[in-house]
Automatic annotation (TrEMBL):
Protein name: Flippase GtrA
Main localisation: membrane
Organism listed in the record: Roseateles asaccharophilus
Ranges annotated as spanning the membrane: 7-25, 31-49, 70-87, 93-113
Keywords annotated in UniProt: Membrane, Transmembrane, Transmembrane helix
Amino acid sequence: MQFMRYALTGGLATATHYLVLFALVEGLHAVAPTAAMAGSLCGAQVAYAGNLRFTFARAQSRHRRAAPRFATVALLGVALNGALVWLGSALGLHYLLAQGLATLAVLVLGFRLNRTWSFS
């Protein structure tokens, strides 16, 4: 059940991420890895609020402890996301396909770290 809550929260955060990514690449002609990282940062803010209040609401974590831990995990996710989109683009993948693969990797890693450390 907790993973389902995490996935729902992540879906909203991911939608935010992809909207920012798409707007920056298609609207402002930003390079995909940079836009992916900017989108990831925006999505992380949505994810933190949702995870604190919905996914891990029963956890004993408090904002003072959870916020810096979540920020650490989010920054790791941003870096991994940017690296994977860069790699995918370098290999000739469309930036949205590369982003989709990066999203899966960051989802799995983020859930494990947030469950066992950020919101524990």
